[in-house]
Structures are given as structure tokens and as C-alpha cells.
Design brief:
Layout lengths: L1 H6 L4 H23 L9 H5 L2 H7 L10 H12 L2 E5 L2 E4 L5 H4 L10 H4 L14 H8 L2 H4 L2 H5 L2 H20 L4 E2 H18 L14 H18 L11 H7 L1 H25 L9 H5 L13 H31 L2 H14 L9 H4 L3 H14 L8 E2 L5 E2 L5 E2 L4 E3 L2 H5 L20 H8 L15 H18 E5 L9 E4 L1 E4 L4 E6 L3
Parallel strand pairs: 2-7
Antiparallel strand pairs: 1-2, 3-11, 4-7, 5-6, 8-11, 9-10
Helix pairs in contact: 4-13, 11-12, 11-23, 12-17, 13-15, 14-15, 15-17, 17-20, 17-23
The structure holds protoporphyrin IX containing FE.
The site of protoporphyrin IX containing FE has 23 residues, from helix 17 and helix 23.
């Protein structure tokens, strides 16, 4: 019988199929049982391919959208501080490793294969090469310095005033404001004016749902899909007449790119005719070469990529941090009363003004903002890096070889019970009290990440938060409408995507 089988002719496709099966079987045995990463526990599926993450993130099964972060949290609690996350990736939960991975001068660089498919590959955010990254950052660092950002205060104030006027209109019409859209529009106007010199006027949209705000809201969650299936990104390169038939999101993305390109042309034309804005802008800096620092002015497409990346990095993040903080203030009358009492010391009437430098000195407002950043964790997901030559030994003694992807998530640090007891309670008191304890805790308030690749926009984000929260709480007696903690539960769609809406009635305070 066996001899008869051997005599059967073997067809080429059978050879191919057999080779394919044997190759994958051997590969699977190697990855799961023999690879140096096989010492790390975790799902066997995760060891075999990138699709374990996608399964929990992109909604292939009902209720499994944006869940990898939370799934990892549960698994770490059971299986320990380091887990296998992919064929070549380990996920770390142990906070002792955070400041090794994301420290200044860290040799753990971004993984080009991962970052180049996300967003604009030529942007500073996506650049993985440390030398090129330094060159790209050269014009941006002084621009984002605190001194420079302070000069934006009058411009930001104008947008807070515009937002307040829009709140009045909603109140007169007897309609609640959807705060997520309103606060993202506020952040959009601030960051776009900083980028182009002119704001996109998102606050003027009747429902705060202007095209750019909607596009970013839709685009960021699609990064989960692009990460798992990089070819999806190339849909964006299709001619518009084809794209129209495939996806409305792609069409919106095209519209935004064209819109940004027009704004760049306008800026250049204005600057050439001596009409540059009176405050520092991103466009202005990007157009000045710095040969001594290796910075060259990017192409028009490079400029567009950089501008759109900065706007996207600064819009949803700040809008979400403000929204979550405001919800928690309104949801806790003790927090609101104490904050209001403090605000009245520098803004005695609801129409008073207080300079940012004075707001920044208020201890309770500062504690509320720090807690808001911890609690909201707007950039919650893991940010992977590559282990440098020589490999690394984890605090628990296990070794990870060079070239392995390792990542930690800001949310896991912020919700770690050992660092922040009762992490699900919004408690500004954590940031008051014994200065030494607060100082230690501050090391783990990592909303903006740490080290060379930490947030460039931190000074702008703080100023936006202080101004939005101080003025909106001092000016308005905001009342929650049909909003509970359940609405504030979120899925991790690159930025938090909430299950419900924060809606408030926006009545002016009289005293
Ligand atoms: C509450 C608001 C914000 C939070 C929580 C936040 C958080 C972060 C985090 C965690 C990173 C590091 C990402 C990584 O490791 O890949 C980052 C990077 C960055 N952020 Fe922010 N961000 C905020 C607001 C802003 C604003 C307002 C801007 C600018 C207008 C901005 C611009 C950037 C840029 C350009 C980078 C890339 C830095 C680099 O790669 O060198 N961010 N941000």
C-alpha cells in the first residue's frame, strides 16, 4: 500500500502546499517553544502573528473594539510584569522599567517598520532614526519652548471667548452642548492657528462638527486597522473618483489634505507679501532652513505631513483631557466647590481675567489638571521601541535580546494600584500634601511620555488646559444633562473613544 502511494505522481502544487505547511509548522514550533521570547507567558496566538492585537482592537468580534489595552492589563495581573505580545514583541507592565525605556538619551528607538505605516511617514512624530529625528526637531524645540508658548496667550484667550459665546447661544436656544465636540473644536482652533497663523474656525460650526474635527475623530481609530493590514493605508493614494466608491473616510482624508495644502499656499503668499502673523507659528519655523543643525525645509508634501501630524497630535488629546477633567469636576460637587473658591481668588467676578502665569500658581487647579491628565490618559496605548544592541535584562532578571520590540502603556502606569491607590477615583488630593510623596508620584504622571520622544507640545497643552478649565468653570454654572460615569467608559481607539456623550447646559454664573 505504502509502495503504491510512493509511485503516485506528485504535482508541483502539492510540493508547494507541503512546503508551506511544513514551513509554518516549524515556524510555529520555533516561535512558541524555542524562540528566546518563549520564556514570556501570554497567548500562543500572540506568539504566532500580529493578529492577536488586531482581534481585540478592530472589532472582528462583537464587543472587542479597542480592548487590547484592557485585555493586557488583566493578563499582566495574572501572568506577571512582562508578556509575549507578538512574534518579536514583549509587552511590559512593571513600572520599574518605564524610566529605562523612555529616559532622555534612551537608545531604545522607534521601530521603523511600525511607525512608517502610521500617519505621515515624513513627520517628526514618525521619524525613527535618532539623527534625522534630532534634525527634524531642531526648528520645533525653540518654537514649543515655554517662553514662546507664553506669547500665544492672547490668541488662546480669543478662542476661549469664542467658545463662551457659542455656549451662550446654546443656552439661549435651550440646548445642551456636546462637550467632546466643543472642546475638540476649541483645541482645533488653538492648534491650527498656532500651525497656520489662521484658525480653522471649528468653533463656528453650528454643532461643533466641522470637517477637520470629524476627520481626526475618524482617522485615529483607523490606525488599528492600518497597523494590522498596512495595505489599507494605500487606499489614500487612490484617485478620488475611485476612493469615493470605497470609503467616505478616505474621501474626507483627501479633503483634509487638500485643505491643508491650500492653507500652506496661503501662508506662503501672505508671508511673501509681508502679512505674517504677529505670534510665532509652526509654518514660519518650518520654512527657515537651519543648515548648522542639518534641518532643510521639507517639500510641500513634507510640510503638509508635518502640519497635519502636529494638529492631529494636539487636537483630540487636549480636547479629551479637558472633557474628562470637566466631567469629573461636575460629577463631584466637593471638587467643583473647592476649585471655584480658589478661582475666585484670582478672578473675583465671572468676567474677570487672570494671566496664565497666575493660574499656573493655583495649587488646587494644578492638582485638578494633573489628576485630569492621569485619569484621562489621552495617549493611553503602548508606544513600542526596539531593544538596543546587547539586549536588556528586566528588573525581574529575564533577558530580552536586541532587536525585540518592547512597549509599555501610559494607561497601565496611571492605573497601577501600587502607584496610585484607588486609581478609578478622580482624586486631586494625590497631588497635594507631602511634597516628597507628590514628587515621587509625579515621576509616574507620564501623560506626555518621557525622554527624547516625549510630547513636544506639552507647554501648549498645559496652557490650553489651564485656560479652558479655569475660564469655563469660572464663567459657567455647567449642569450635566443625562450624563453618567457609564457614558465616560471608553475603548482604546488610539485615543479614548467614549461609550456615551458628555452633555451640559451652559448657564452663565452671576457671581
Ligand atoms: C493633553 C494633551 C497631550 C497629550 C496627553 C500628549 C501626549 C503625547 C505623547 C504620549 C507623545 C509621545 C508619543 C510616542 O511616544 O510616540 C506625544 C508626542 C508628540 N506630541 Fe503630544 N500630547 C498632547 C498635546 C500635544 C499638543 C497640543 C501638541 C502640539 C500642538 C503635541 C505635539 C506632539 C508632537 C509633535 C509629538 C512628537 C514628538 C516627537 O516624536 O519628538 N502634543 N504627545
Amino acid at each position: 500500500m505504502f509502495a503504491q502511494l510512493l509511485e503516485l505522481p506528485i504535482r508541483p502544487w502539492q510540493v508547494l502546499l507541503g512546503t508551506f505547511i511544513v514551513y509554518h509548522a516549524v515556524r510555529a514550533i520555533y516561535l512558541v517553544y524555542l524562540s528566546p521570547l518563549s520564556i514570556f507567558p501570554g497567548s500562543k496566538w500572540a506568539a504566532l502573528g500580529e493578529y492577536w492585537e488586531a482581534y481585540w482592537n478592530i472589532g472582528v468580534a462583537p464587543g472587542k473594539k479597542g480592548q487590547t489595552l484592557f485585555k493586557l492589563e488583566k493578563m499582566h495581573r495574572k501572568l506577571g510584569g512582562a508578556l509575549r505580545m507578538g512574534p518579536n514583541e514583549v509587552h511590559i507592565y512593571d513600572p520599574r522599567f518605564y524610566h529605562e525605556l523612555y529616559k532622555p538619551g534612551s537608545k531604545y528607538y522607534k521601530d521603523p517598520t511600525m511607525h512608517k505605516v502610521l500617519g505621515a511617514p515624513s513627520s517628526t512624530l514618525a521619524e525613527s532614526d535618532p539623527i534625522r529625528h534630532k534634525q527634524r526637531k531642531a526648528p520645533l524645540e525653540p518654537l514649543f519652548s515655554k517662553k514662546n508658548i507664553l506669547s500665544l496667550e492672547p490668541m488662546l484667550m480669543k478662542h476661549v471667548d469664542h467658545c463662551s459665546q457659542r455656549f451662550d447661544e446654546f443656552y439661549r436656544a435651550g440646548k445642551p452642548v456636546s462637550m467632546e465636540w466643543a472642546l475638540k473644536s476649541l483645541a482645533m482652533d488653538m492648534v491650527s492657528q498656532f500651525a497656520f497663523g489662521k484658525s480653522l474656525n471649528a468653533l463656528a460650526d453650528p454643532e461643533f462638527k466641522s470637517m477637520p474635527v470629524r476627520v481626526f475623530q475618524k482617522y485615529l481609530p483607523s490606525l488599528h486597522v492600518i497597523k494590522a493590514f498596512p495595505f489599507v493605508r494605500y487606499l489614500n493614494s487612490l484617485p478620488l473618483w475611485i476612493a469615493k466608491h470605497i470609503s467616505e473616510d478616505v474621501v474626507m482624508g483627501h479633503e483634509l489634505e487638500q485643505f491643508a495644502s491650500r492653507r500652506i499656499e496661503e501662508y506662503i503668499a501672505d508671508a511673501n507679501s509681508g502679512k505674517a502673523p504677529s505670534f510665532p507659528t509652526l509654518m514660519e519655523r518650518l520654512l527657515i532652513p537651519l543648515p548648522e543643525k542639518g534641518y532643510q525645509v521639507p517639500s510641500k508634501q513634507g510640510l503638509r505631513d508635518e502640519i497635519l501630524t502636529v494638529i492631529s497630535a494636539g487636537d483630540d488629546t487636549t480636547g479629551i483631557a479637558n472633557m474628562v477633567t470637566i466631567f469629573n469636576i461636575l460629577n463631584n460637587s466637593q471638587v467643583q466647590d473647592r476649585l471655584l473658591r480658589e478661582l475666585k481668588t484670582v478672578m473675583p467676578t465671572p468676567t474677570s481675567h487672570a494671566p496664565y502665569l497666575q493660574l499656573e500658581q493655583l495649587p488646587y487647579l494644578t492638582a485638578v489638571i494633573k489628576e485630569g491628565l492621569r485619569y484621562s490618559s489621552p495617549a493611553a496605548s503602548r508606544t513600542p521601541r526596539l531593544v538596543p544592541p546587547g539586549g536588556v535584562t528586566l528588573p525581574d532578571g529575564r533577558f530580552i535580546p536586541a532587536g525585540t520590540r518592547v512597549g509599555m502603556a501610559i494607561y497601565h502606569i496611571h492605573y497601577n494600584e501600587d502607584l496610585f491607590p484607588s486609581p478609578r477615583t478622580f482624586d486631586p488630593e494625590r497631588w497635594l500634601g507631602d511634597p516628597e510623596e507628590v514628587q515621587n508620584r509625579l515621576k509616574f504622571n507620564v501623560a506626555f511620555s518621557r525622554g527624547n520622544r516625549s510630547c513636544l507640545g506639552i507647554n501648549l497643552a498645559y496652557m490650553e488646559m489651564y485656560m479652558a478649565i479655569a475660564y469655563l468653570i469660572r464663567r459657567f454654572d455647567l449642569q450635566l444633562v443625562d450624563t453618567t460615569e457609564k457614558d465616560m467608559v471608553w475603548d482604546d481607539m488610539v485615543v479614548p473613544q467614549f461609550h456615551g456623550e458628555l452633555k451640559v447646559m451652559t448657564k452663565r454664573r452671576e457671581e
